[in-house]
């Protein structure tokens, strides 16, 4: 890196054009300052024309010395549009957005470079509405936007309305079809705001899509879980002669992992080996994730150990693979070793570790990782904040979760949904509804997960009418149609409100086909509320549909037995046997001194029995809100119904 300019030492040999070439080749601020000083010593006549002053200011701005450029250009004697454009960029580079806007408003002449600089300033300072307003003003003033203009403005788009307006402007200027860069920007924009059909339309209208275009549309299909479309795009791309790159392979391989299509995944794995893509960290992480999901953890570990340089992506994939397999100690150990080896953790590393730490109830490890997050300066990252919010909600520490949630300035949809569902997990329905309402006021476009959270909150609070209004709102304003999980949630809400007959009618009218899980929930509600008539009705419906769950057969047999209808009871038992209905077993777990004990209702004795039931004893009295009156109240008294 040169510290001084090449040896042009006098005014006779150093022309303005040669000086401009030297400034363009300067690789450090010291070199630019040295050349500036030499030019002043040779002759101040060099700076009578704005040309060389512009070149020098551009060099200062490029090398990170924007304040020097500002001082130089503010003293310019005859500024032109280029001078003002460079000064505008320098002011924005110094963080002086207000000064830049005043200069912009006072400029007698503006071109596309002027608008692009100001748009970049608004985009960098997270002022999307100002950027969109300025783009509209740019078009009204007759300045033709460039491909870079659309690239900047697309990052400020957060709604379908603004996205369609930007797309229309690109079509009007013949850039959406003819310019691959603009087409790719529009595809990514529609992908980000969730309008897949528009992204596909942009791609189909492009005259000459490039490899980035194919990758963008495949990523959009992957986000919408349209695995078939991803595979079709990959085959079409290869037929058209495009060379396969590592990023393309990682998209397809990740899609195979998402849908658990192990046959196609093995084909992609063979392609990776054939084309030597395993040295690419992104591809390598996708392969490790695929191997872990296909129960080949040992192969993933072997691949990881063979990597010459282990970056953050492969570490993230193997940490998540360990944790997904229940090997939390190995996951945390790899996390610690990677940090000691100088691998700087990313937001995805923290997200993986925090997610699985909360799943296994490892509070101490989770709080330690939180401290490391703050130490490394990741506390403002929305991905890490989302993972921390999720962890504290799962650990029951909603106060800490709310504190982290409030500290995030630019909250995205995932963070809002995480906070909403976290409050629901802790039985805080009113707070969840309040979060949902604030989310809509902030202009965040909800999705199906948001709808499920809002309906679940209404179910907890027994707000039937409000739940129906929310379903109508999502249909009319956001064009989100409820699915099975949403209708199941509404049925559960009606059951909680004691409206069992309405729940049965609702499910039969709304669901296109029989759902054993939904009717099973209604049947359990009938039993809890002691409505034997409705329980018999629901159980008979489930038996007629040849359900493979054991609950309706058991309930119906007990009802017939209580009425001495022995033949019908025997028929129910025979039907249960012919359908091979099985009881759905569930389990619980406790974490005692970093050891996780899993047990079912059939188990009285197991490993760690003493400590486990002591904790259960304390939890029981804590839920009852009573002081513990007697020492040694054992598991037999608490679980007297256990066999």
TrEMBL record:
PROSITE patterns: PPR. One of its GO terms (biological process) is RNA modification. It comes from the Eukaryota. The keyword Flavoprotein does not apply. PPR repeats lie at residues 111-145, 311-345, 412-446. Keywords: Repeat, Transit peptide. One of its GO terms (molecular function) is RNA binding. The keyword Chloroplast does not apply. InterPro entries: PPR_At4g14850-like_plant (IPR046960), PPR_rpt (IPR002885), TPR-like_helical_dom_sf (IPR011990). PANTHER family: PENTACOTRIPEPTIDE-REPEAT REGION OF PRORP DOMAIN-CONTAINING PROTEIN, PENTATRICOPEPTIDE REPEAT-CONTAINING PROTEIN. NCBIfam families: PPR. This is Pentatricopeptide repeat-containing protein. The lineage of its organism: Eukaryota, Viridiplantae, Streptophyta, Embryophyta, Tracheophyta.
